[in-house]
Specification:
Helix 3 links the parallel strand 4 and strand 5. Helix 3 runs parallel beside helix 4, helix 4 packs across helix 8 and helix 5 packs across helix 6. This protein is α/β, with parallel strands linked by helices. Helices cover 40% and strands 21% of the residues. The strands form 3 sheets. Strands 3-2-1-4-5-6 form a 6-stranded parallel β-sheet, with helices on both faces. A 3-stranded antiparallel β-sheet has the order 7-8-9. It has a 3-stranded antiparallel β-sheet with strand order 10-11-12. InterPro entries: L-lactate/malate_DH (IPR001557), Lactate/malate_DH_C (IPR022383), Lactate/malate_DH_N (IPR001236), Lactate_DH/Glyco_Ohase_4_C (IPR015955), NAD(P)-bd_dom_sf (IPR036291). One of its GO terms (biological process) is lactate metabolic process. Keywords: NAD, Oxidoreductase.
Amino acid sequence: MKPNTVGPNTANKVAIIGTGIVGASVAFACLMRGVASEYLLYDLDESLAWGHTLDLEDSAFISSAELRAIQRTNAQECGQADIIVIAAGYRQGPGETRDMLLTRNENILKDVIHCISPIKSSAIVIMATNPVNILTDLAQRLTGLPRSQVFGSGTYLDTIRLRTAIKKALQGEVEESSIQAYVLGDHGDKQVAIWSSATIAGTTLTSFEELEHMITREKIAHATATKIYEIIEHKGASSYGIAAVVTELILAITMNKRTVIPLTVYSERYDACLSLPSVLGVRGIERIFYPAMNPKEQALLEDYVMCNRVICAKYRIPELAAAEE
């Protein structure tokens, strides 16, 4: 089947779970891009979901979409949506790492999945709550859907930040879309910028004068990983970047773009959920790529995977783990 690149399939129903700053921003971005004909907004704070629905209705004329606030009593309706975006959870605070959110957001995720179940067998679930890798692993187990249909936003935003920083280092001579460079593994402090196989038009980035020195590349990678802390310091939370990212993911699904995007997926090679370049289409994750890495990059990624496995095992639901053995 050839990819559909004409326009989005606006027959899709999108459910956005969690209408805080991220969920509301996702809803607005989706409305502006016309990615669906119907949006369901659900939050444990029903008043908040209703308020955002009323506000977003005033912008719905852009795409002639329908918006509905969903109450807890009929939350199962969200489970029947074509695409389910999970943005429910506490946001990262000043001086707080994404991993520090785990205990609180794990409990919220369990409650959310319970409320919206049963989930339609063909639904695609996008995890946008942090820590995204661990919660994606948990969501795959809780929903019972094929792993290819449950994935996280991963390091897509980090990769965009890296490419933007590279563009600036090159004085804007090359657009981000022409820069083939990825951040992989962790959407957090343990993320790994893959310089060894990064290219522009087949030319390795390390051969560019502006990027040939390791210290320059390390500064760029560090700035990419820590940008979130600067955003939090000045405005309390990030929202626009992740909203744009999730909207692009929905478009990749509805338009069956089969775009290669670094997303949180389950990797059989690593036996863990981590962010890797993945082909995203109408059925979800269709293929995973493993870019060439130098020994240092590979070691950093494997170190992260080991930490990830330990944490996931701790939060793994006993009855689900037993059923998988």
